[in-house]
């Protein structure tokens, strides 16, 4: 608007000048100093008015940006729940404010998750440490009559719990940091078979493997996934754990299932959350951390696969699906 007004004024001034020049006697052409001064003065005024108008208009237009950046400058980790103001008009600035708020929301969720994780971790570290402290204090109070070998055995249990927890925490931070080890084309059945040979199981472990099931993966990661599933299955099984490796369609699939009490349908996603342990497991083994399944799922997903629980006649049936290796897929085309 202001620019239009300035243009009209400029046109009027130029026309008036021309009229004056035409009306003036010949010569003097620019003879009058007063006319010349008026022209220069008018032009300067016009330029000043245009500049002021443009400045006013720009600052009005950019006002929402100032409001957004002013608010952003005050946001800290302690007040991440605050949001930038939304401009009233539906334009690019509103879009910018909405995107900024969505980013803040994601940052807030991530920080809250980290805080919850730190608090759960401290809690889990505190329990074995408190048990060790009590054990040592009691032993020292009755130092003459105490059986030090028994005491050492009980302390060792707590140390093992601490060690397991710290190992899991290290694994989680490695996975969260996206550290990716070397991926090789691996024969899944051979890998699983070899790992099961090294396990000492308290229950019967039945293996059913198809040949030629190849995955592109990190050996250490896949081994850990298998052991995490096996630890659980052996803990919960009544008598038998079944491990299968086969193709479903094109996809390599690893299954670990047991004949235990299973996982209720409504808890099947909950148990993949960090530190989640069901009552049944707490009763069976106080030492778990609730990190085994989240780690196993993250490993499967980092390989482009999935880890889920599926229905089975009895017990829990964990199914890890992997993508068909690209090299094989290309070869079969
Ligand atoms: N095979 C299974 N049968 C029944 N419940 C299971 C089985 N595997 C896992 N769960 C449940 O899932 C929970 C989480 O498992 P996990 O993350 O490995 O933690 P942890 O083994 O340390 O308890 C277990 O505490 C248990 O309640
Ligand atoms: Mg476990």
TrEMBL record:
It catalyses: ATP + protein L-histidine = ADP + protein N-phospho-L-histidine. The keyword Kinase applies. It comes from the Bacteria. Its EC number is 2.7.13.3. Keywords: Kinase, Membrane, Phosphoprotein, Transferase, Transmembrane, Transmembrane helix, Two-component regulatory system. It is found in: Cell membrane. One of its GO terms (molecular function) is phosphorelay sensor kinase activity. Pfam families: HAMP, HATPase_c, HisKA. Its main location: membrane. CDD domains: HATPase, HisKA. The keyword Membrane applies. This is histidine kinase. It comes from Streptosporangium album.
């Amino acid at each position: 608007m202001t620019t239009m007004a300035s243009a009209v004024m400029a046109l009027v001034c130029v026309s008036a000048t021309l009229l004056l020049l035409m009306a003036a006697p010949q010569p003097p052409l620019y003879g009058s100093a007063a006319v010349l001064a008026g022209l220069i003065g008018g032009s300067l005024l016009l330029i000043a008015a245009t500049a002021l108008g443009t400045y006013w208009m720009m600052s009005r237009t950019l006002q929402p940006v100032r409001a957004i950046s002013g608010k952003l400058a005050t946001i800290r980790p302690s007040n991440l729940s605050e949001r930038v103001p939304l401009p009233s008009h539906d334009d690019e600035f509103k879009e910018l404010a909405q995107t900024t708020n969505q980013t803040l929301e994601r940052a807030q969720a991530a920080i809250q998750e980290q805080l919850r994780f730190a608090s759960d971790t401290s809690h889990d570290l505190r329990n074995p440490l408190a048990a060790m402290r009590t054990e040592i204090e009691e032993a020292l109070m009755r130092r003459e009559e105490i059986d030090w070998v028994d005491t050492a055995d009980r302390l060792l249990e707590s140390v093992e719990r601490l060690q397991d927890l710290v190992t899991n925490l290290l694994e989680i931070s490695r996975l969260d940091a996206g550290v990716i080890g070397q991926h090789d084309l691996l024969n899944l059945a051979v890998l699983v078979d070899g790992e099961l040979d090294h396990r000492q199981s308290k229950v019967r472990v039945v293996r059913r493997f198809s040949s030629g099931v190849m995955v592109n993966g990190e050996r250490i990661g896949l081994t850990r996934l298998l052991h995490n599933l096996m630890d659980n299955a052996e803990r919960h099984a009544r008598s038998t754990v079944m491990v299968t490796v086969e193709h479903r369609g094109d996809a390599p699939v690893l299954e670990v299932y047991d004949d235990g009490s299973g996982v209720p349908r409504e808890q099947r996603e909950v148990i993949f959350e960090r530190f989640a342990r069901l009552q049944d497991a707490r009763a069976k083994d106080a030492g778990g951390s609730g990190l085994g399944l989240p780690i196993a799922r993250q490993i499967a997903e980092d390989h482009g696969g999935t880890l889920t629980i599926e229905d089975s006649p009895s017990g829990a049936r964990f199914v890890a699906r992997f993508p068909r290796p690209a090299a094989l897929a290309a070869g079969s085309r």
